Amino acid sequence: MKESLPEREIVARVEAALYSSGRPMSLEELVKATGLNSKEKIKKILLDLTKKINEVFYALELKELQDGNYVFQLKSDYGPLIRKFAKQPLLQSSALKTLSYVVYEQPITSKRLVQIRGSQAYSHVKYLEQLGFIEHESVGRLKVYKTTKKFQDYFGISDLNIIKNSITLKP
């Protein structure tokens, strides 16, 4: 794409990327989303958008995070208020617990997961694979699970070691 796109189209592409991603996005990702090659131009658009959004919306915000990523989100004050109206979470807590064991112990065998989480782990890993958060490799009759790049992108994780060091697991 050319840098001759109308300004309105460039802004619309940044908005669309931030809204649809549902996660923090890096400046590089936003540059790709617009098809431009100018980080400076996207940074200026982000500053203008941040100002406009934060002036117009009361419960939503565009925010630059400490790691330099940008996120379009609900302000934290409104989380408890709308929680009862929000859709069911993508992951039920039981599947999330199974996922946390995969994250912490990866690579982890299906046998080990079942020892820790019980037989419901089979349905959890099936669902987590369908979502693309984990993948397996067959080693003999065992399956060995690990997380995927999609998992890291979805949860905004750049370094799994930081997560592993901060998890306290309880079966």
Provide tags for this entry:
9 helices; alpha+beta; Arc Repressor Mutant, subunit A; 171 residues; two-stranded antiparallel ribbon; 3-stranded antiparallel β-sheet
How would you describe what is shown here?
- The longest helix is centred in the N-terminal third of the chain and has 18 residues, at 39-56.
- The chain has a three-stranded antiparallel sheet.
- The protein has 171 residues and is α+β, with helices and mostly antiparallel strands.
- The protein is elongated, with a radius of gyration of 20 Å.
- Strand 1 and strand 2 form a beta hairpin.
- The chain has two domains: 7-82, Winged helix-like DNA-binding domain superfamily/Winged helix DNA-binding domain (Arc Repressor Mutant, subunit A), CATH 1.10.10.10; 93-166, Orthogonal Bundle (Arc Repressor Mutant, subunit A), CATH 1.10.10.10.
- The model has no long low-confidence stretch (mean pLDDT 86).
- The protein has nine helices and five strands.
**What count of structural domains?**
2
Based on the structure given, which CATH architecture of the largest domain is correct? Orthogonal Bundle
Number of helices: 9
Shape: elongated
Structural class: alpha+beta
Q: Which stretches are low in confidence, meaning pLDDT under 50 for 5 or more residues running?
A: none
Taking all Cα atoms into account, the compactness measure Rg is 20 Å
